[in-house]
Write a structure and sequence with these properties.
Helix content is 26%, strand content 21%. By secondary structure, the chain is an alpha+beta fold.
C-alpha cells in the first residue's frame, strides 16, 4: 500500500510533505520556511518569532467565536540518526519512507514521527473547512529534542489561548497532564598513547531497532554501546587490549543502534574465544526482541585496515 492511501489521508499527505523537508534539531531553517509558507498560502496570520518558532492563527468557525481559544503545539525538529552503512545527509535530504505491513518506516534512518505526526495533525486542522472549532493558535516550536530552545525562547504575549494541547504524545488514546525532564553529564578523562603491541581486532554491533530514549526505554531493546561494553569488558579487565578507536553514535535522546571498536589485542586467540562465547550469549538473550542483531568480530593486519 502506498503512503498516500493510508487513512486519514489528509494527515498522511501532510506528514509526507513535512518529511520531504530536512529538519534535524538546530538545523530547522528549511522547515521553518516550509511551515511559514504553509500558513501564508492558507491566507492565515503567520509569524516567526526571534528564535524561529512559527505561530499560525485561524479564526473561529462562525458561531463559535465565544468559545475559549485553543493553542495547538508541536515541535518541528526531529531526532536525526542513521545506520552507518546508509549514505544520508539530514541537512539536505528528506526522509525516505515506506509502508511495511501495519507500520510506516524510514529506510535506514529515524522516521521523524516524533513530532512530525503532531505537526501534520495541526496542519490538517488548519487547512480543513469541515471541522468546527474555536479560535486556534498553532504553535510550532524548534529544537525540542536537544534543548527546548523554542519553548524556552517563547516570549510572553505572543499567544492568547486559554487551553494548550501539546500533540507530542506517546499514546494516541490518552491525554497526559504532566512534565518530564532530563540532565546532561559531561565526563572527561586524560589518557596516554602507546604503541599497539598485538593483533588488530574490530568488533561491530549493528542491526538493532533503536528508539527514543524516553518512550522506548522500557521495551528491553538492545543498546549497542552497552553490548559493545560487555564484549570489551573481559579484555579491559585483564589488561589484554589497547583501545584504538570506539564509536557509538552522537545523539543523547536516541537508543544507539550501532557501535564499533578497533583494538590491539595482546593474546588474540584467548580474547576472540571469550568474546565469541559472549557473542552467542548476547544473541540468545536478545533473540525475541532484536531479531536483526549482528555482532561481527574481525581481525586485521594493521589498525588502518581495521578503521
Amino acid at each position: 500500500m502506498a503512503l498516500s492511501q493510508l487513512e486519514p489521508q489528509l494527515i498522511w499527505k501532510n506528514f509526507s510533505a513535512l518529511n520531504a523537508v530536512p529538519r534535524p534539531s538546530k538545523k530547522e531553517e528549511k522547515v521553518i520556511a516550509f511551515i511559514k509558507n504553509f500558513g501564508e498560502n492558507l491566507g492565515l496570520e503567520t509569524t516567526v518569532d526571534e528564535v524561529g518558532n512559527v505561530i499560525i492563527k485561524k479564526p473561529a468557525t462562525p458561531g463559535m467565536e465565544d468559545r475559549k481559544s485553543v493553542v495547538l503545539q508541536s515541535h518541528l525538529d526531529m531526532v536525526h540518526q542513521k545506520n552507518n552503512d546508509v549514505n544520508f545527509d539530514f541537512e539536505t535530504m528528506g526522509i525516505d519512507m515506506e509502508v511495511d505491513g501495519d507500520w510506516v518506516k524510514a529506510k535506514g534512518t529515524t522516521l521523524g514521527a516524533d513530532n512530525g505526526l503532531g505537526v501534520a495533525a495541526i496542519m490538517s486542522i488548519l487547512e480543513s473547512n469541515d471541522i468546527p472549532h474555536p479560535a486556534l493558535e498553532a504553535l510550532f516550536t524548534i529544537d525540542e529534542e536537544t534543548g527546548m530552545t523554542g519553548a524556552m525562547g517563547l516570549k510572553p504575549g505572543q499567544l492568547h489561548g486559554e487551553i494548550l494541547l501539546n500533540l507530542d504524545t506517546e499514546e494516541d488514546d490518552e491525554i497526559d497532564i504532566g512534565c518530564a525532564g532530563g540532565i546532561d553529564v559531561t565526563a572527561t578523562q586524560t589518557y596516554g598513547l602507546e604503541e599497539a603491541k598485538g593483533q588488530i581486532v574490530k568488533i561491530e554491533v549493528k542491526g538493532l531497532q533503536g528508539g527514543h530514549s524516553g518512550m522506548d526505554i522500557i521495551k528491553g531493546l538492545g543498546n549497542s554501546n552497552v553490548i559493545l561494553g560487555r564484549l570489551l569488558y573481559t579484555g579491559l579487565y585483564n589488561q589484554n587490549i589497547q583501545l584504538i578507536s570506539i564509536d557509538g553514535g552522537g545523539l543523547r535522546n536516541a537508543i544507539p543502534r550501532e557501535a564499533n571498536a578497533v583494538l590491539s589485542v595482546r593474546h588474540s586467540v584467548e580474547f576472540i574465544d571469550q568474546v565469541t562465547a559472549l557473542k552467542k550469549e548476547i544473541l540468545d538473550e536478545f533473540t525475541s526482541v532484536e531479531k536483526d542483531l549482528h555482532l561481527n568480530i574481525e581481525t586485521f593486519s594493521s589498525a588502518e585496515k581495521g578503521l
